[in-house]
Design goal:
The protein is mainly beta and 108 residues long. The strands form 2 sheets. A 3-stranded antiparallel beta sheet has the order 4-1-6, with no helix packed on it. Strand 2 and strand 3 form a beta hairpin. The radius of gyration is 18 Å and the shape is elongated.
């Protein structure tokens, strides 16, 4: 990426209909777990895993205050069935803290 991102999101669909060419697994359906790793240069700055709900468009979104320039997505179940990704979005601005939050945190 040209500059570090603060946020990234996409939709993920995991079908459960085996043997269907479109909107199906195209093989035996397997419950899939994905691993997501965020990097800034060579340093990993965040990670999480996800087992998406079946047969719906799952919204997957995350943000990092430190920014990241690389995202690695891995299917840890290592299956050959289909999952569908789409509607990718990125963000480069951090979400500002509310003005009164520092006072609240200080106990004033």
């Amino acid at each position: 990426l040209r500059r570090p991102l603060q946020g990234f999101s996409f939709l993920l669909h995991e079908p459960t209909t085996s043997g269907v060419q479109q909107d199906g697994c195209n093989a035996a359906c397997v419950e899939t777990t994905f691993s997501f790793k965020l990097f800034s240069g060579a340093n990993q700055v965040g990670s999480f895993s996800l087992d998406p709900a079946n047969d719906v468009a799952n919204f997957v979104g995350f943000s990092s205050l430190s920014g990241f320039d690389k995202l690695v997505v891995d299917d840890v179940t290592n299956a050959i069935d289909n999952e569908f990704f789409g509607n990718f979005r990125t963000g480069v601005a951090t979400i500002p803290l509310p003005a009164g939050l520092p006072l609240l945190l200080a106990g004033l």
